[in-house]
Design a protein that fits this description.
The complex is a heterodimer of chains A (452) and B (297). Chain A is α/β, with parallel strands linked by helices. Helices cover 44% and strands 12% of the residues of chain A. The longest helix of chain A has 21 residues. The chains are: A alpha/beta (452), B mainly alpha (297).
Chain lengths: 452, 297
Amino acid sequence: MRKRLLLLSAALLATASLAACSNDNGNDGSSASPGSSQPSSQGASSSGSSDEVVTLSFWRHDYAPEAEAFKKLIASFEESHPNIKIDFQMIPNDQYETKIRTALAGGNPPDIMALDAPTLASYANQKAIIPLDDYFAKDGNKDDLLKPVIEGLTFDGKMYAAPNNEGTIVMFYNKKMFEEKGIPLPSKNVDEAWTWDQVLDAAKKLNDPAKGVYGWNPTPWGFVGHEGAPYSEMAFLWQAGAEILSPDGKTAKGYLDSAESKKALTFWQNLFNGDKVSPKELPQDAFWNGKVAIHVDGPFAFQYQEQNFPNFKLGEDYDVAPLWKESKMIGTTGSWGMAITSHSEHPDEAWQFVNWVTGVEGSKVWYEETKNLPARQSTFDAFQELKEYPMNIYAEQLAKYGHPRPVTPAYPAISEAIRLLFEDVGLGNADIDDSLAKAVKKIEDGIATLNP
Amino acid sequence: MRGYRSAIYEKQESRAAFLFILPAFVLLAVFIFYPMLHALVISFQNYNLIAAEHHFNGIANYRKLFSDETFGASLWHSFYFTLVVLPVQTAISLGLALLVQKKFRGVGFFRTVYFVPVAVSFAVASTIFRLIYNKDYGMLNAVLKGIGLPALDFLSNPDISMLGIIVLCIWRAMGFVMVIFLAGLNNIPDSLYEAAHVDGANAVQRFFLVTLPLLKRTMAFVVIITTMDALKIFIPIYITTSGGPAGSTSTVVHFIYETAFKQMNMGYAAAAAFLFFFLVLIISIVQLRVFRTDVEY
């Protein structure tokens, strides 16, 4: 009996320790030993050579169209750099930020991490990622990058990430509905964008509560809890001529609560509560199902439509026009890139991979696979379709009227403050002055914690 | 001679007892006490989640909490939630327990049906309720429209959003509390009911004068556990409403999570967590004293 007990507990201990081992893949930065078990390593060839094989871990949020692109790029990279292996992990979208932050806090982040441009400053400020200026000067082709891109990735005078692509939002509208109601179609010329009032006018005519059809959905995903909401909502403030922060980034008072902001928010409040042309709760795939007449989306929408709604065709059922404007024409920009963590023991090799994916050639492959707006001028020049409808609207709007989100370590507080501000005013129908005061206070608190 | 033997026996007993407790205590110390201590230290620092070094800033975090409107609002939301859930859920569960206590044919089926929501993953249930509550296309409003009642916009109306969460949580937990009450009810001997019946008590009087007093211990357990769970509610807030609309369902734990991981302000979040810990502790102690009972049967 005793022997059996001992045997059982020994077996349990053995299995427990094995389980602990297998959980450890990819989380401990770069390891140089070729014999260690890395089950999710993407490399095809076995690394039995005696010279050092460097394994770099790379985390990115999960988005299916990009997974294919990465597989291709990683395979081609490993072929041309036999001494470097990439351990690529995709993390579910809504957990990505939390996971990367806890990994950084715990001291075991990956070598290379995907980075959403507005969060760059908070990571750089805490020295969690390294500046890439020297690498860019060596072989990064920095001049090829678009100006707003460099602006969005520079903190404190140094560039901290390399961009995979850019992004902006434009107006999508249901062509058939416009034609049915006899409304003239919006111009496709970026310099002749519709004003808010013009869009509202059309929306009121298209609004059909009896059939459950809303005239105008002003944010791509509705009132969501993630970055997608403030991404599109900030454009409203800028279009009205307001700014969120002072030029030195030290305060929001006098900027966020300006008269222009109030104008923008009054208009916003009216959309949901006055004229009621906008849905407070956005149903799944509202635009593609014909529940919303005027919508806003990024370039990834085309692929989404082709995969999921092949019968809702561009040019017949729906069309694309430049984003609306008020006193200014502005579309929010800023998208994902790759950064190297300061924890990495092989920054040079990491840069080789980062440059492979985001460099001149990699950027072309990336565009072909994901159809995301490029961040490099050379990629724009290489593809004819970027100069044609519909992508040219995105391209021109990005180049002429792009506006990145504020680059400051206090960005998380700003993002949350804006998101809540628009929810308070839109969903809660709250007093605009009170809501603005609340948002300003939240931003000021966020800035204060940076400078104790 | 005999005293010496029993002393050694005592010593061996207590040492064996100590060794038995040791593994559990070590686990508790490593996974609960040590992190709590570390969190306490963090709450006195200006601790950014991903920073390399941290500085002490005394009680600044705690002081800021007292003037933080958002934190105050989240406290109120937690308490509002608890104040509604506690009596309603307890009453419903007790009612269900009374209904399924009698052993009629098919009672097993009903007991299972009431308990199934507890077995469903809370995250899955929250996601599904989010679809059910949708104003235009959710099942709830489809049914209400069919009957002719106005639609309930739980997900976009800040005034009633908390009620939507409350319904979800009660639906989920009532089966569990029902089972606890069942156990408590089965512990009351039938002879007491018969005696009361003989004395001329009707059903209502029997309930209030026999059942309830003898359920005091069970009731104490239910109230304390329900209060603690209700104050700490997080999953449905995070998944169904994301703390919205317009921050109307943001409870304390949600506030702490957002502050720690989205705003990366770990020190402030730890301070909020500790303040909340003491609050819940005090409430639980008060409840334990109120429910102290010497009733034996």
